């Protein structure tokens, strides 16, 4: 077996170790900015199995309200929706996942777009 110039390490170990050290020193970027378009992707990937996440029809799970029904509830503000989504302990057992804070912000930005015209945001 070929060894590195250090004599006791395999030749591949030194470059691998350097890469690991550099990876450990790198900084983690900021989470993406909230956007309704990112919220659409999150809605389809994480919510669409049960909820109607778009413009019409019924949810595939009869116990899951549509996004429009959720955002049209009296008193449902973006802040209230965000607070619910951030606290995964509120979720029904079927919702066995957790959303990261930036995912919540994007999902709220997307969901609030489904508010009907007859149901304006409170205090607007």
UniProtKB/TrEMBL annotation:
InterPro entries: Cyt_c-like_dom, Cyt_c-like_dom_sf. Residues 1-23 form the signal peptide. Residues 34-115 form the Cytochrome c domain. The keyword Iron applies. PROSITE patterns: CYTC (PS51007), PROKAR_LIPOPROTEIN (PS51257). SUPFAM superfamilies: Cytochrome c (SSF46626). The keyword Signal applies. Keywords: Heme, Iron, Metal-binding, Signal. GO terms for molecular function: electron transfer activity; heme binding; metal ion binding. It comes from the Bacteria. This is Cytochrome c domain-containing protein.
